[in-house]
Amino acid sequence: MSQQPKKNRVTVKIYDEEYTMRGTASPEYMRRLADYVDEKMKQIGQANSRLGINKVAVLTSVNLADELFRLRKEVRELENMLKKKSTK
User: Fold this and answer.
1) Do 44 and 64 contact (CB within 8 A), yes or no?
2) Could you state, in chain order, the average pLDDT of each consecutive group of 10 residues for the chain (88 residues)?
3) C-beta separation of 13 from 36 below 8 A
4) Which pLDDT does position 39 carry in this prediction?
């Protein structure tokens, strides 16, 4: 029987709402994630003050997905550059 990794719990505040996060990551890491999402939501909420929390959350999700896709593309390009250099 394999032992399950320890689950940590941390209460965080995102866009003035409290959430309990649970996972195998360290509490510090989970707080950093929550702080990052909170900051992104605040930026979008301030730029679009008439939007409700649901729309702010969706726009934040789209922005974070865009950030992820761009970073993945950059990593692929860097990996390709490294492969080309190593085959020379």
Assistant:
1) no
2) 84 98 98 98 96 97 98 97 86
3) no
4) 98
Residue 13 contacts residue 35 (beta carbons within 8 Å): no
3-class secondary-structure state, position 68: helix
pTM (2 decimals)? 0.85
Q: At residue 22, what are phi and psi to the nearest 5 degrees? A: -135, 135
Q: What confidence score (pLDDT) does residue 1 get?
A: 57
Phi first, then psi: give them for residue 55, nearest 5 degrees.
Answer: -70, -35
Q: Cα separation of 1 and 68, whole Å?
A: 36
Q: Please check whether residue 30 is in contact with residue 37, taking contact to mean a CB–CB distance below 8 angstroms.
A: no
Please provide the DSSP assignment of 12-64 as one string: EEETTEEEEEEESS-HHHHHHHHHHHHHHHHHHHHHTTT--HHHHHHHHHHHH
